[in-house]
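Components:
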Amino acid sequence: MKGDDSGNTALGGIKVLDLADEKGVYCTKLLADMGADVIRIEPPGGDPMRRMGPFVDDRPAPERSIPFLHYNTNKRGITLDYSTDEGREIFLSLAQKADVIVETSQPGTMDELGLGYNLLSEGNPGLIMTSITSFGQTGPHSHYKSSDIVAYGMGGYMYVTGFREDPPVRGYGNQAYHVGSIYGTIGTLSALFNKNITGQGQHVDVSLQEAVLSVTEHVSIYYVYENHVSRRQGTAHGTWQLDVKGPLGIGDVFECKDGHACVFTLKEETIQWLIDDGIKEVEPYLAPEWAEPDRLEERGRIMNPMVREWVKRHTMDHIFTEGQRRRITTCPVNAPDKTFHDPHLRERGFFVEVEHPELDRTLTYPGAPYKLPESPWRIRRKAPLTGEHNSEIYIEELGLDEGRLGELNNKGVI
Amino acid sequence: METKFNFEGLRIADFTWVFAGPACCRIFGDQGAEIIRIESRERPDPVRPILSDDKSPDSERGGYFNNLNRNKLHVTLNLSHPTSVELAKKIIGISDVVVENFSANVMEKLGLGYDELVKVKPDIIMVSASGFGHSGPYRDYRSFGPNLQAISGLTNLTGFPDNAPAGFASSYADSMGGLTAALATLMALNHRQKTGKGQHVDVAQFEGLCSLMDTCFLDYSANGRVHQRMGNRHPDAAPHGAYPARPDEGKERWCTIAVFTDQEWRSLCKVMGDPPWAEDNRFSTAEGRVQHALELDKLVAEWTVNRTAEEVMETLQAAGIAAGVVQSADDLFKRDSHLKARGYYQISEHPYLGERLNEGSPMKFSHTEAGVRRHAPLFGEHNNYVYGELLGMSEEEIEQLHREGVI
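Structure:
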């Protein structure tokens, strides 16, 4: 079968139906990139995501949408309107053979369509249905409308992100969708692990709000243990609450000659570096009494303004390479083009080139989030064109004939 | 046959510390896996003093540690003691997975590299989650969450264009590194269920973050475009951002609003009482609204600022517009009736810290349980269970290991 090029992949042979919008499209990418046979189901005429820019060569076209290309690698694609009677019948036969369905519709929608978990699992008890929604399947806000920024704000990360003189700001790059998708994938694979043993599938309910809340690190625990409401404090780390402890003592992002750099200031090595660079007035802080745990933070607070002034003399690259040579935790605050050319990522083969004959281009994609030598991440196929696998799946795999396919096409079902 | 938990019978030897590694194991512990945390008082987890009342390096009273290490078991093992390696191998011999987040090479130096582990457990899955991974020019570089956020580009791209990079407020790299390691572990577990083979998984938190950069790398490759900070702006939506609401007892409040379609825009105008400025032709199309977003933001803010954040959210949601309170910890714990109804925060009772709320599981399963069952373990709380019951050592043997300073 064409969809099953499992080979040495981690998830080869797992059949996934992908009904996800932006909220969950990264979940199904994660599964597809590790070998699952993911069938993306688009409405007839194509996925609304295909209209989202930017576009390759800045030429808007359904096969040129960069978000669509990025989030649909390794998937096969069919068109199907499963809200019609005939479409629903086809969907049911696909669902009978599926291991996993990922969907992101408003809670209740799948039930209304006669495609809810209870119904689908009757004939396929091992089925895993993963629902990724902004607020989850239950609760008073489950029907609230949302988007990345709304979930990010409701999840508590936005209130603490940014500088105090600015409004709260959301993290770059739809992070609520990414975190929700990752939890969707973890939930799916956890249920799959269990199903491989028990044969029992499950409905998995993931809330973007809760997903965001669970990656904030400091927001909940400072409230639980110190009754402290964390606020925005720029790049100062959340475990160092400025409202409680005053100016930062462990390190921060500082302006340098050609941008910004991140420097950890709490170490003797940092002091020695300043001394070597001619800043002799920091010498007293190398004395052993300053290394006592209760004085370390105080020393950091004194050092930080000096480091801030001193970093201005240097370039990001110097701070990074010389700092790391001295065993100090430093990094440049990279713009994405700099990260794109980063030698470490290049040597580890993080970026991969994908041929796009239909666009007459080769594009470079970000690659594996992890390295599994026995079952590696790989781009085996680029994102599908609209309805690219209609005949492969409907005729070869479901056994419909050409005539029937034409009929469904004319009726706008596929 | 059904089980109470997804990971019933799965055992993980947990050599992790600080944040990313423990966050990875927490995922499995929350779903019923047996997590054996291996740690010594000689080399305690550096996060132990955080949110503790004694600030001691080996504190057992830290809130940060309690939240991250709930549901886990704990054995003491002094890895600098020569006898410890054999004992560590015995624990690994009865485990399915080993997770560690030391710098590259540390496990090998301890005599616990992957090549050694397969000798005691041929199908072992070893997950190494480090900042930069186990190969490449930065493999020995030092890392810390904010540094990885900086080098990935996330720090630079988060914030407003007319201010410095704001970045993330905490170690997002560790949060996501932990989840990335959990994903990798799950992938390897499925592969083992299928083939019987284990493997050594290399997770670089740096790459984990670079996988979450949306379209910036592909857009750069395709069009040479370098993404910039754009605050809360959205290329296809306006108004889109955080708008000031009426302060509450002097505290700032904010509400997000995201308007994508013309219908949502008309609904918003209606809710705001159809102000004359909304008739402006510049705002009649999505393109126009995006182009004049700055002006639009000011006008919408004039309406939101006189209302409570909840009022803005509820009124707009009733009209079919995406909106939500920018919630502070106060809001999350006290006002959010939805989180409460779903039971997100869960109580555990710690012998020193008492009853405390913990972050819950953002995943709910129809047939199995996920969440908080017990507090973080105390030092060596499960020595007798692991060394005695699981490894079959006698009380005398355990006592002797204790005397020799091995455990």
